[in-house]
Write a structure and sequence with these properties.
Length: 197
Amino acid sequence: MIKVNLLPHRQIKRAERQREFSLMATLVAIASAAILFVSWSYIHNKIQAQQTRNQRLQDEMVRLDKEIVIIGSLKEQIQHVLERKQIVEGLQSDRNQAVQILDELARQLPEGVFLKSIKQLADEIELKGVADTNARIATLVHNLSTASIMHNPNLVEIKANQNALGNKEYEFVLRVSLKRETAAEDASKQKPAPAKG
């Protein structure tokens, strides 16, 4: 019987398998490292792109906040301009009012009634005066209730006194409201009538 020694052959096969295993392990490690590097690079690029977008959004938000502040200040300026415009329009509409009030009072004042003072309180006029009879004061109240620029006369106070000559007189305080004309009525009064023909 022939005896064959297989021990070196087995060791050679085992060494080859170990070399193959080492080679495969090295290739797997290299492939894993490559996959990890590619994945890390991809994720890092995505993170940087997102951070760039976030930074752009923050810059835009800061810019928009500044514009909002500017818009707020512009709104305040517009409000101030509108308030000034209303004041100017009020002055424009009221510039002839004193003349009209005095003219209307001169027309509506009955004989025997004398005014001591005229005071304007916003949309009201306070008249202080003296009359020789109560009937004259009643006539004045009636006349002012039908006046063109005044309405709602309100007799606040009336009292009887003796004047320096010994005659009886009646001191009175009367408040009357002013009629406010609208801007459209003012404009229609200021427009000239169209020429005929």
